């Protein structure tokens, strides 16, 4: 299928057609003066002029809180205290106009939830399998963006089913995968002209060249792991960090979770919630022993996991260079400086 | 081993509760599967663990203390420490809980074949050692392994686990047992002294041998130099780690230690493997 044109005025109609096809659509919406990726109901219109969303789209496949099982605590019932699976309808989820860095992040989450474990995570797999990604390339990357350090770029097609380029009056839609072709099939869109395609190419090249010279973080691998772990750098690097967890909350690849039971009246649920390596409770043993007792160890864990352990396990760092942690850190910790330092 | 939902526990009934220690802080729970097909699906090896699930309270990772040769039930010995273990200690025989597993990698039994194995345990870190010893002593298995030596200590006689089983082993001639306490008391006929010192006296040969060491950090710290002096290399020393865990299958990230996950890459590691990763456990 060739490229199509989606005029900006027709975005709502286009999404309406996809909703009619059965897709649940998530996209960038304005919330309290910021842009977050959220489910778009019929009336919401997505914002397509934004640098990057504050909250990443990871909740599409890994909700902040998710019910895993339900049970009854009513002792008179024969099934008391026996966990039952939660029925979840299989719906196609469409990520509309998310950034290419976030599209790549799903590839990293795939490694965690589908490859790393002894089993595949069924909750993640169910949502991810039926997901389609329309990524909006970045005509003007911002100063905190460093996707190109991590193997991506402002128009990276990794993890993307349909690539969108903002041409001013409309978007050029280029199907990248069969899933992308299937998504656009049967939707009334006019074909792109050669000059549209040429203009998109020009914007894509301009955005890519505008970015500063990248640094290759995989150079980190040169150093022995334990030497890097024991580096005196960590003593001072963590001092500014207040361990608030904002970075892990906003990160599109941070995926640690906790499992908790909750009971109200006779009904109970077992669910999972986003967790963060920044909090001491995450690793506290029942005995009182904590393998990461102070801020230094917790700070080190976040960066060692992302930049070294994950690299050793999967040959790629656990970071897509979206820059959220740089932008929103209350004490201006910059992961790029840490990469520079660790490379030696 | 494919399971539809690896987070779903098998329902089990508490068949028998044994108070193990005189301070009542440790109880053993004998569990029986409610469904026969679940029992068949739960195929484990000594050294593996499982998540015990109490609906409404949560889950806890506990080493399996029974041996796969002990059919019909699973045994878990639980220290009363946190929310779930406290609730479990208050439960009664007949109550229904859940078991999720088996999880992790057990002891390398294939490597033990034809070799002598020295078990060094302290306090309540003796659960999966019990499993392994019972497995090796089983008539179908005993001939595959060389000498079995057990050095097991606790602070007081009343804190030793599995007293009846310990006595049974003592009466056999195909296993050498050395039970010790930090401080003797009336009626105690075993050794008196710390585990590292007893290990030094027993002086097991490191030739064609493996040493499995499980105990409190202080015991491990002082036993290591003794083993090294006896000639045990880091490849011959095997340990079992504990870390806070949730998923138990290498996804949730809680037990991450360097590029390893204690739940799925362990809990059993050789000292040589542990020397390669940060000691965040």
Overview of this structure, please?
The complex is a heterodimer of chains A (344) and B (281). By secondary structure, chain A is an alpha+beta fold. Chain A has one domain. Chain A has helices at 11-20, 100-116, 122-129, 178-184, 194-210, 225-229, 233-237, 246-250, 295-314, 324-328, 335-343, and strands at residues 4-7, 23-31, 34-39, 65-72, 84-85, 92-98, 131-136, 162-166, 170-175, 190-191, 257-264, 267-274. An eight-stranded mixed beta sheet of chain A has the order 3-2-6-7-8-9-1-10. A four-stranded antiparallel beta sheet of chain A has the order 5-4-12-11, with no helix packed on it. In chain A, strand 8 (162-166) and strand 9 form a beta hairpin. The longest helix of chain A is centred in the last third of the chain and has 20 residues, at 295-314. The radius of gyration of chain A is 22 Å and the shape is globular. Chain A starts with a strand and ends with a helix. The mean pLDDT of chain A is 94. Chain B has a seven-stranded mixed beta sheet with strand order 10-9-8-7-11-12-15, sandwiched between helices. A six-stranded antiparallel beta sheet of chain B has the order 4-3-6-1-2-5. Helix content of chain B is 23%, strand content 30%. Chain B has helices spanning 36-41, 83-89, 109-112, 127-137, 163-170, 195-202, 217-229, 262-265, 271-274, and strands spanning 10-19, 26-33, 49-54, 58-63, 74-79, 96-103, 116-122, 148-154, 176-181, 191-192, 209-214, 237-240, 256-257, 260-261, 268-270. In chain B, helix 7 (217-229) links the parallel strand 11 and strand 12 (237-240). Chain B has two domains: 10-103, Translation factors (Elongation Factor Tu (Ef-tu), domain 3, Beta Barrel), CATH 2.40.30.10; 109-240, Nucleotide-binding domain of ferredoxin-NADP reductase (FNR) module (Rossmann fold, 3-Layer(aba) Sandwich). Chain B is of the alpha/beta class. Classes of the chains: A alpha+beta (344), B alpha/beta (281). At the A-B interface, strand 4, helix 2, helix 6, strand 11 and strand 12 of A face strand 4, strand 6 and strand 13 of B.
């Amino acid at each position: 299928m060739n490229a199509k044109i989606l005029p900006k005025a027709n975005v709502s109609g286009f999404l309406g057609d996809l909703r009619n096809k059965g897709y649940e659509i998530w996209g960038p919406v304005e919330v309290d003066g910021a842009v977050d990726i959220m489910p778009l109901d019929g009336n919401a219109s997505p914002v397509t002029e934004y640098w990057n969303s504050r909250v990443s789209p990871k909740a599409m496949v890994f909700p902040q809180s998710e019910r895993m099982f339900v049970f009854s605590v009513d002792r008179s019932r024969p099934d008391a205290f026996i966990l039952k699976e939660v029925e979840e309808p299989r719906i196609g989820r469409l990520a509309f106009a998310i950034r290419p860095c976030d599209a790549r992040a799903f590839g990293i989450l795939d490694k965690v939830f589908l490859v790393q474990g002894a089993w595949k995570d069924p909750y993640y797999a169910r949502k991810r399998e039926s997901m389609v990604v329309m990524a909006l390339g970045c005509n003007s990357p911002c100063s905190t963006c460093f996707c190109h350090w991590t193997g991506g770029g402002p128009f990276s097609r990794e993890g993307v089913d349909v690539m969108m380029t903002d041409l001013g009056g409309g978007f050029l839609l280029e199907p990248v995968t069969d899933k992308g072709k299937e998504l656009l099939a049967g939707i009334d869109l006019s074909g792109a002209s050669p000059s549209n395609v040429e203009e998109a190419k020009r914007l894509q090249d301009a955005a890519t060249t505008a970015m500063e010279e990248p640094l290759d973080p995989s150079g980190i691998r040169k150093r022995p792991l334990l030497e890097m772990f024991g580096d005196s750098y960590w003593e001072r690097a963590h001092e500014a960090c207040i361990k608030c967890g904002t970075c892990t909350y906003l990160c599109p690849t941070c995926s640690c979770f906790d499992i908790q039971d909750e009971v109200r009246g006779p009904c109970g649920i077992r669910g999972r919630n986003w967790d963060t390596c920044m909090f001491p409770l995450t690793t506290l043993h029942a005995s009182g022993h904590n393998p990461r007792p102070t801020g230094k160890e917790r700070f080190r864990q976040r960066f060692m996991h992302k930049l070294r352990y994950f690299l050793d396990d999967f040959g790629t760092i656990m970071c897509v260079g979206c820059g959220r942690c740089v932008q929103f850190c209350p004490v201006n910790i910059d992961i790029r400086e840490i990469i520079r330092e660790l490379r030696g | 081993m494919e399971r539809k939902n690896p987070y779903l526990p098998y329902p089990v009934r508490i068949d028998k509760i044994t108070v193990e220690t005189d301070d009542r802080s440790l109880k053993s729970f004998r569990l029986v599967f409610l469904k026969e097909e679940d029992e068949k699906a739960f195929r484990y090896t000594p050294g593996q663990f499982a998540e015990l699930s109490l609906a409404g309270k949560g889950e806890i990772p506990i080493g399996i203390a029974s041996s796969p040769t002990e059919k019909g039930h699973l045994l878990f010995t639980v220290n009363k420490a946190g929310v779930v273990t406290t609730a479990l200690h208050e439960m009664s025989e007949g109550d229904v809980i859940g078991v999720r597993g088996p999880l992790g990698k057990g002891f390398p039994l294939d490597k033990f074949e034809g070799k002598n194995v020295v078990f060094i345990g302290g306090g309540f870190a003796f659960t999966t050692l019990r499993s392994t010893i019972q497995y090796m002593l089983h008539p179908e298995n005993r001939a595959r392994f060389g000498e079995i030596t057990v050095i097991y200590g606790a602070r007081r006689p009343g804190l030793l686990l599995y007293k009846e089983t310990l006595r049974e082993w003592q009466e056999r001639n195909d296993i050498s047992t050395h039970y010790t306490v930090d401080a003797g008391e009336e009626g105690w006929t075993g050794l008196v002294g710390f585990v590292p010192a007893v290990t030094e006296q027993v002086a097991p040969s490191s030739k064609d041998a493996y040493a499995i060491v499980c105990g409190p950090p202080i015991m491990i710290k002082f036993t290591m130099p003794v083993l090294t002096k006896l000639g045990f290399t880091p490849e011959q020393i095997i340990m079992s780690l504990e870390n806070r865990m949730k998923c138990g299958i290498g996804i949730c990230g809680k037990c991450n230690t360097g590029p390893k996950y204690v739940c799925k890459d362990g809990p059993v590691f050789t000292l040589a493997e542990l020397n390669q990763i940060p000691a965040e456990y």
